[in-house]
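INTERNAL AUDIT FORM
Audit reference: QA-55
Scope: verify that the stored structure record matches its stored sequence.
Auditor: D.O.
Record contents follow.
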Amino acid sequence: MLAATATGLSPMPKPIPAALVSHTVGALPQPGLVALAAVAHLGYGATAAVLLAALARRVTVWHGLAGGVVLWALMGLAWLPYLGWGLFGTAITPRVAVATLVLHLVYGVVLGLLLDRRNKRERPGVGR
């Protein structure tokens, strides 16, 4: 997300977490804005991961993908309109919807792989 923004490839005018923080809190010095946006975004993602792990008896990549889609829908239906960017960011460009979906799908796959308890192998001598 940051690399795409820095290179100008991102369809968003600024990273969404930074836009949300600045829209909600107001003007902040750049280091404070970046720090608060990073903490908020990582905290939001971690909370979603904890909820998924707690709610799903067995987490799979498919569960992770579904969780990523739910978070994308929440972002597109609530947070982006709150910023004035329209549903799924389409007031800026439809590319926002596609770019954010891809990022949330990547998050979901990684989350599913990390939480997939079926792939955990017991190491010899551990837990005995």
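Auditor finding: record pair retrieved intact. Residues 12-118 form one domain.
Action required: none
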